[in-house]
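Cast an eye over this sequence plus C-alpha cells and explain the fold to me:
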Amino acid sequence: METLVEGAVAGALRDGNDEVIRLYVAACAERMAPLFVGLRAGAPGREFDLDFYAESVRDLWYVDRPLADAAECVRLLERFPELQPSEEGITDVADTYAFFAVLCLRYALSAHGSGNAADAVSCGHAALTAMGMLDRNVAGAGLLAEEQRLQSLSLSGDASGLWDASITAGRERFRAVLGRLSRQACS
C-alpha cells in the first residue's frame, strides 16, 4: 500500500529516535481526537470508550518514555465498534471520520509503545487519508495540506507549539465534519 506520508517525514521517522516517533504520533492523534470524541459524545454505552480515548491521547504526550501498557491499550481499542468488521462497510459520514480517528489512535499507541516507525507512518497515513476525504467533500477546506504541514512540523521537537497547533487543527476538522453533516441533513 502506498502511503500518503511524505517521503521526508517517513525518512525522518525511520532515522529518528523514539522520542521523535512519540511526538509525531501524539500530535497526529491529538488532531484526530475531536473527530472521535465530538462525534461519539452522548452516544449511549460509549462513556468508557470516550474516557479511554481521551486518556490515551493525553498519555501519548509523555514522549520521554514509552507507554508501559501500550499493547493492552491497543487490545482495548481494537474492541471499539469502529474497528469491527461489517458486511455493509462504513457509509455514514460520522462513522467514517470516527473510524479514522480510532485507527489513527490505534497506530499511535502501538508506535508509542514500540518505537516502530512503520506504525508511526500508518498513524500519519490514517490522518492524511481522512483529511483527503474531507477535502474532497468540503469545498476549499485545505485540510490535507495542513495535515502534511503539521506532520513535518512535528519533527521539530517543539511539543508546546505543536500541541497548540494540533488542538486548533482538530477543532477545524471537527467543524468541517459538522458542516458536512448539517448539509447532509438538509438534503
Notes: The chain has one domain: 7-186. Residues 111 and 120 are 5 Å apart (CA to CA). The chain has a mean pLDDT of 93.
